[in-house]
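Render this sequence as a predicted structure.
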Amino acid sequence: MTNQHPITPLPELVQQWIGNYYGCPVSGELAGVETAIATHAAQWGADQELLACGNYLKQCVAWEEEDVIEFYNYRRPKPSSLKEQALAQLSSVETDLRRHGIINTDYIRRALEQLDD
């Protein structure tokens, strides 16, 4: 899938899982390793389920490979590139600047648009 993963368990849920493992309630701040392992495990499980769903769609519903890839990309979207983020931020700044007639941002926009993603 992608490096940017939308599946992250809540700290309370991680505490509950740890408490279930040790057989006693857990409270307080979690150690970084506990959070990291729980997050990676949840993400791995979610990715396995997503792949199983994609395989089902290909085999049983006869989806084309392109449709399954689109399904994967919808469920695990890639984060915006720095260029896309900068252009979006520039758009919001341009609105305010144009309202007050302060600056023209055409050069900045053209430079950003020429950058490779």
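Summary. The chain has two domains: 11-75, 82-114. The mean pLDDT is 84.
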